[in-house]
Amino acid sequence: MTRFIPFVLAAAMLAGPVAADAKKEEFCQINTDIIERLVEMRLDRVSKSKAVKDLMEGENAVPENYTVAVTQWSEWIYGQPRKDAKNFVSDDFYKACLTQ
Question: Is the pTM of the predicted complex or chain greater than 0.85?
Answer without folding.
Answer: no
